[in-house]
Amino acid sequence: MGDPEPPTDLSPIPSRAPTPGSEGAHTAGDRVRDLIARLGRPVSVAEVAVEALGIGGCPEPVAERLARDIVAGDSRLAWDGDLIADAGGARDGTALGVTTFCIVDLETTGGAPGSSAITEIGAVRVEGLRITDRFSTLVDPEQPIPAHITGITGIDDAMVRGQPVIDVALPAFIAFARDDVLVAHNAPFDLRFLNYERLRLRDGYFTQPWLDTLVLARRLLNGAVPRHDLSTLAGWAGAPVRPAHRALADAEATASVLIALIGLMGSGAETTLDHAMSIGQPASRRSPRGPGESAAAA
Description:
Layout: H1 28-39, H2 45-52, H3 60-72, E1 77-80, E2 83-86, E3 101-108, E4 118-127, E5 130-138, H4 147-153, H5 157-160, H6 166-177, E6 181-184, H7 187-200, E7 210-212, H8 213-220, H9 230-237, H10 247-264, H11 273-279
Parallel strand pairs: 3-6, 6-7
Antiparallel strand pairs: 1-2, 3-4, 4-5
Helix pairs in contact: 2-3, 8-10, 9-10
């Protein structure tokens, strides 16, 4: 029997869209993953726009929208604070009871990094589920502090005059934080400011694991408290230091909330960091304030 006759219709056969990760695929997700691999770290939405999508001068809201769509459509990518990371990294089985945390809180002149500035950094180190060290500094924002912000924090222009500028204060905080797991209440707000300033100093990003006590509380307390703002949660946790819209006090209160929430997840000696991260991070990128959250949540 001879060879079959060739088909008479020689029009191109429609090809299927490449599977992300398959050989020869050139999806946006592939390009973002290539960028992450090349740089060896999570990437910002601005880097995605310029380096992965080739869009120079892309307005930030447009870059954020494009990045959000890419991450939502590619399970190999995940949000790490306000950065995009490869979701396929190694899982961290470190027990929470032996994990070292750096709980950080910022006071700022407003809500937008770049147009607003940091006025105070407070942080505590938690080891063995107890506070072992503290860091605190006022920061000269090199811009006037709005009156309504002074009304909330009590920090005014006279208090920050002569204090370290962020170019000095941030490296000091970086040295304190080391590679500890970062924790904050409404963490994307703090991480956006910290990463913005660290990038401006050309010192990379904070790339260590992180937890958000606001998200942890929402998912673990299951209606046990009427609100999830830091003041309410500090009362629930029996924090010896209550939040006062000052960075160190708020960091200490957040540490008490974190320790109490870890207790709800089971024994700190048995519950892993990976498990806590699966609970204590948003499922998708959040704005500096989550839906329905006011400044009181931070």
